[in-house]
Design brief:
The chain is of the alpha/beta class. It contains 9 helices and 8 strands. The N and C termini lie close together (6 Å). It comes from Nonomuraea salmonea.
Length: 222
């Protein structure tokens, strides 16, 4: 329950520093008046990329961040990195507050939108978790769905190397190839949302995680 005179606090855990500002603005829209607490830890993503999947110490540190969030007065922790989304799910039984992953609402929307669902990613470590979260959403909703994964080779490296234009070009090229095969395209990483406005007019629907993922904060009690 909310307490009169006590400011609500929501926490977010990021692995891409550049996303913190834009997601904070979305959090303020979703939960007006709430204090937004941001944790930024690039090493969680770096270690996951190196291992191929979140290694055990990433799970332990994620649980620690949930503890920090709780101790700081937060009522919820939103994990904004899809690569560690499955670790966020595994952390839930050990956390004293709800732990959300940013891409679950997007997955639910995708299976409501089409029968053939394309998953577009720039990281192999994200492609698998996002594909699986869409497949689980499809299983919950009943009718058969086909999930088609597509990895944009070289795009993530271009973005890390300071060449966002090449990143966007590679993502758009991958999108064009994938869109020809599916009813809806899911962008696996929040950092890919920038390309939505550049998608060709009349193409299949494109779903990204930031807005729908952060909107979950509106429904959490503090």
């Amino acid at each position: 329950m909310r307490q009169e005179g006590v400011q609500e606090t929501v926490a977010m855990l990021h692995t891409v520093p550049a996303l913190a500002a834009s997601l904070t603005e979305l959090a303020k829209e979703a939960r007006p008046g709430a204090k937004v607490l941001n944790f930024v830890d690039e090493s969680l993503l770096q270690d996951t990329i190196a291992a191929g999947d979140p290694p055990p110490h990433v799970l332990r540190r994620l649980i620690a961040y949930a503890t920090y969030a709780k101790e700081s007065g937060a009522g919820v922790l939103l994990v904004t990195c899809s690569s560690i989304g499955e670790a966020a799910e595994r952390a839930r039984p050990y956390a004293e507050l709800p732990v959300l992953r940013i891409d679950e609402p997007m997955a639910e929307e995708a299976v409501r939108t089409g029968v053939r669902i394309g998953v577009l990613a720039t990281l192999a470590s994200t492609l698998g978790p996002t594909t699986r979260v869409v497949e689980r959403a499809a299983a919950r909703q009943g009718p058969a769905r086909e999930v088609v994964p597509y990895l944009c080779e070289g795009a993530f490296e271009a973005l890390r190397g300071g060449d966002p234009a090449r990143h966007d070009a590679l993502v758009l090229d991958g999108f064009g190839k994938l869109a020809a095969q599916v009813d809806v395209v899911v962008l696996a990483q929040a950092s890919m949302a920038r390309i939505v406005g550049d998608a060709p007019a009349g193409a299949v629907p494109v779903l990204s995680s930031p807005r729908s993922g952060v909107a979950q904060l509106a429904h959490m009690t503090a």
